[in-house]
Amino acid sequence: MIPIPTDAQGMKLYLIKLGEISLKGLNRSFFEKKLKNNIKLKIHPHKSLLLREKGRFYLYVDDTCPDEIVEKTLKTTFGITGFSRAMVCGKAWEDIISTTNKIISIPPFVEGNLSQNAILAYDSPATCKYRTFKVEARRADKSFPKTSYQIEAELGGVVLERIPSLKVDVKRPDITLNVEVRENVYIYSSPIPGPGGLPVGCAGRGLLLLSGGIDSPVAGYRMARRGLKQECLYFHAYPYTSDMALQKVQDLAKIISPYMMGTTLHVVNFTEAELWIKNHSKEEENTLMMRACMMQVANRIAKNIDAEAIVTGEALGQVASQTLQAMAFTNSMSSLPVLRPLVGMDKEEIIETARRIGTYETSILPYDDCCVIFSPKHPLVRPDSETERNAFNDMNIDEVLDKCVSKVKTYEISYKTGISSL
């Protein structure tokens, strides 16, 4: 057995499976280092040790760190496809049997509090919350004397002796006991799914236009899943939009913050700009001009924070301002790329993601954002870019937008401690 590092003695072990990162070529170490740093930042201040081996991370965590904290950390860290509480032992068969008895004596195999750290006694039958199981062995070390099938059959007998209520089901088991024979032997139960994707911070920086709706938090989530580090921008039009609308956006930013490795929320007072647009443009152009102004403000703020792209929650054809022609016009207002990760999704797909990441119930709270204040009854659907560019210039709104940018209020949103004003 390769000795466990001295620093890891007495610590809990979690086996972490990597997905897309494992397919990278010569630059794989860059992605692995970014993921390693993200995990350690989230686990801090709890002591941890993270080791790498052939498409796996082995996370050793201080025994005093609650399982709930580790689970929440790994569930919201992009780059991870699955993880499980694990145990490690040598290749002596007696050690493997003993370790198997230990791993099936703690959750999730048996009923119990996930925060408990002590190994339950295994000299008597345990109560299991599952009906069926299977053992799945992976013998990476081909010199090990037992075949994968022999490992599965014999350890299956160990499980049945310990938990007689279980039955074997090799096709659709309720839970799987995994055994990996490598330099050491790792034993763990069915992995908890991770979010996949690439580690946040490996694909540059962006600015997310975060409204109080369903779409934009999902857009931020999807771009974070591709490794984009993001700050958020919200347009507030008090008193036409209430303080509750601002609180709603702050709450949404807090919900997606763990996925984004923390974020910053920039709040623009957009009231004067909204009124200027209403008084200096045609009614059917109000929404289009508002989107153009938002894009110009976003472009300036993005450059101030060294962001390299702007992210929106637009989906093609969803509303009048999200036609190809309208998007082309708003694109022309930014010198940075405009990313629309939802552009080909339908509303049901977006809602399903919002429910899964926990933003949906907050997004549907009845506090309108500034986008709906002066919405025309019959908005322009297929604008001509040159015509609307002239109309935009005729508004002479540059000074108003400069004022918006100069008076931005900023909130730092930690993935651990919540929100604080800067």
Query: What is the number of helices?
Result: 13
User: Structural class, judged by helices and strands?
Assistant: alpha/beta
* Count of distinct strands: 16
Mean pLDDT: 89
Distance between the termini: 52 Å
User: What is the approximate shape?
Assistant: elongated
Beta strand %:
15-25%
Top CATH class of the largest domain: Alpha Beta
The CATH topology of the largest domain corresponds to Rossmann fold
The portion of residues assigned to helices is 25-40%
What are the salient characteristics of this protein?
422 residues, alpha/beta, VC0802-like, Rossmann fold, 9-stranded mixed sheet, 7-stranded mixed sheet, 13 helices, 21% strand, elongated
Which helices and strands, and how do they pair?
Blueprint: E1 12-18, H1 28-43, E2 48-53, E3 56-61, H2 67-75, E4 80-89, H3 93-103, E5 132-139, H4 148-162, E6 167-168, E7 175-181, E8 185-189, E9 192-196, E10 205-209, H5 215-225, E11 229-236, H6 243-256, E12 263-269, H7 271-280, H8 286-304, E13 310-311, H9 324-331, E14 338-339, H10 347-357, H11 360-363, H12 385-394, H13 398-406, E15 409-414, E16 418-421
Parallel strand pairs: 5-6, 5-7, 10-11, 10-13, 11-12, 13-14
Antiparallel strand pairs: 1-3, 1-4, 2-3, 4-8, 4-9, 7-8, 12-15, 15-16
Helix pairs in contact: 5-10, 7-8, 8-9, 8-13
